[in-house]
């Protein structure tokens, strides 16, 4: 499989696909096409998340400490469990492809 | 961190760096510069390995069933625990960057 291929022509919502994993780890491809978190929405996850931006561009916002990160291809970070975060922006004219690995705290 | 950056000028051996993980999962960056598995060497790992080729080019060989896979950026696969495999070739003039996620069987 190639992460840059097999993306639907229409993408009314973000595409989330499980690629591999077991009871303790989940590896997913996420494709965003201008999608971003709803106004005022913050993720607050029970698992740690390692995320890699494979293609495209995005802005992440994280709380405690407050940070805004502009992500380019190759950028990656680990978001600790329960660290609140949101996707402020993804490139509106280009598919933004993420690889995310969720793992237990 | 950007997976394409902070690569040493000299790379006598493959670079392997732990990025994140816990007792059940290990996320690593691997950088190859023409490196390949020694003649006759096969990996036989106790863990599953999800691997993504981020940059560069490589040929993987897998056993049972026997396969040779030419990998380009964005290509990914999961190598099941104890499936024998080796890296036949990586691009000699370009850094090949892998993201690998090892997780328990």
UniProtKB/TrEMBL annotation, chains A, B:
It holds the Pfam family Cupin_2. InterPro entries: Cupin_2 (IPR013096), RmlC-like_jellyroll (IPR014710), RmlC_Cupin_sf (IPR011051). Residues 44-102 form the Cupin type-2 domain. This is Phosphoribosylaminoimidazole carboxylase. Gene3D superfamilies: Jelly Rolls. Signal peptide: none annotated.
């Amino acid at each position: 499989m190639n992460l840059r291929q097999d993306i639907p022509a229409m993408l009314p919502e973000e595409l989330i696909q499980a690629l591999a994993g077991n009871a303790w780890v989940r590896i997913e491809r996420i494709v965003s096409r201008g999608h971003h978190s709803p106004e005022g929405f913050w993720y607050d996850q029970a698992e740690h998340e390692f995320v890699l931006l494979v293609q495209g561009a995005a802005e992440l916002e994280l709380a405690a400490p407050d940070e805004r990160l502009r992500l380019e291809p190759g950028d990656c970070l680990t978001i600790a469990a329960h660290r609140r975060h949101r996707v402020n922006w993804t490139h509106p004219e280009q598919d933004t492809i993420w690889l995310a690995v969720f793992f237990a705290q």
